[in-house]
Amino acid sequence: MDLLIRNIGQLIQIQDPGVRMVAGEAMSRLNLIHDAWLSVDNGRISGFGPMSRAPQPADQEIDASGCVVMPGFCDPHTHLVYAGSREQEFVDRIRGLSYEEIARRGGGILNSAKRLRSTTEDELFRDASLRLREIASQGTAAVEIKSGYGLDTESELKMLRVIRRLKDTSAITIKSTFLGAHAVPPEFRNDQDGYVSCIIEEMLPAVAASRLADYVDVFCDEGFFTTGNTARILEAAAAFGLRPKIHANELACSGGIQIGVQHRALSVDHLEWTGQAEIDALKGSDTMPTLLPGAALFLGLKSPPARLMISSGLPVALGSDFNPGSSPAGNMMLMMALACIRLKMLPEEAIQAATINAAYAMGVEDELGSITIGKRASLIITKPVPGYAYLPYAYGSNLIGQMLLNGQLIEIQ
Ligand code: NIG
Ligand code: FE
């Protein structure tokens, strides 16, 4: 045995093999063992159970008395490769400008695109590596990262190459998403249709040939990409085998959720503007509704109806949306707290949403997202806490005590 964690106060989020997500009422039930042990072999969970039936001592042991041990977070929606920062827009919004108004004036995503185009791959890689190290220290074991600040073929490929380098060098599991349709770049000002044709005819074939993207995304919302253009992109992407994970219904009832479901999206994300029609569309689909409460907090958006989604039988996932414009934070423990405080999700539901359901929303549920024999031993060992509900409750504290990625303890910053 490579490692034995003993005396675990609460070992939480235990799932049988093959469980891919948890929906509806079941989200409020968390499987756990009090006073537990867990063993690791070859970077994977090899056993666990109550201390009353603990195995023989191992060479390497961790005493987790009073601690919660849980699967590392999966963060299924980020834009953490970016150049510079946008605190000036933050100040502009404090003074009264809206996110959409800033975007219309050439700020927002276009501001980040301008900086990204003039930043080298090495610099982007270095900055993003630091962000990865930061979120690993905050408990994240897997992260999805989008392109979308390049907005031309070469710059989008540059972003995707940086993500590939991060995949190759980080112990965090990473999925990459091509988000050419994040904003219309200056070269196509007032010509969204023309830019979408460029995405379909030039960018998508190049991205597919490079094999650098796992998924495709479109910012389908009022003021950004129309449902018609979203459908065009998703159809073209399907021909290359790229499954969608899309931005939808953040700024308006845009029809994005329905378009996503129709194109078998793995997830539809944001969803502040969700009503009964959208919930009905999601029911029975295999699309994961993914909520990003950090962006809603930062932009002062209304809350998505998480309670209605769950009581309607839907699963819900959480993501950070880590990006320089609408959520400059990738802390998933904080996202769980926001889900409890603002979306009225129970701690059990927030934990499901940030682990197994988030793993599903980025296609890593076979490897991560639960305490299951054979899954990667990418685990959070908290500081001593009264119990798991303390995690979203004490939302200002850093409660990560130790963090394992693939069975190896990492340095906590
Ligand atoms: O998810 N909504 C679209 N895109 C990002 C914002 C990116 C930015 O402002 O740079 C988001 O919130
Ligand atoms: Fe986003």
Roughly how much helix do the residues carry, as a percent range? Answer: 25-40%
Q: What's the overall geometry? A: globular
> Number of helical segments?
15
Q: What multimeric state do the chains show?
A: single chain
Low-confidence region ranges: none
- Average per-residue pLDDT, rounded, comes to 97
Largest sheet descriptor? 8 strands, mixed
Question: How does this structure look, described?
Answer:
35% of the residues lie in helices and 21% in strands. 54% of the residues are buried. The chain has 15 helices and 16 strands. A hairpin with a 2-residue loop joins β2 and β3. The chain is globular, with a radius of gyration of 21 Å. The site of fe (iii) ion has 5 residues, from loops.
Quick tags:
single chain; 413 residues; alpha/beta; globular; binds N-(iminomethyl)-L-glutamic acid; binds fe (iii) ion
Furnish the topology, listing elements before pairings:
Blueprint: E1 3-12, E2 32-41, E3 44-50, E4 61-63, E5 68-71, E6 73-75, H1 87-94, H2 99-104, H3 109-117, H4 121-137, E7 140-146, H5 153-169, E8 173-181, H6 192-210, E9 215-220, H7 227-239, E10 243-248, H8 256-262, E11 267-270, H9 276-282, E12 288-291, H10 293-299, H11 306-311, E13 317-318, H12 332-343, H13 347-354, H14 356-361, E14 379-382, H15 390-393, E15 400-405, E16 408-409
Helix pairs in contact: 4-5, 6-7, 12-13
The chain binds N-(iminomethyl)-L-glutamic acid and fe (iii) ion.
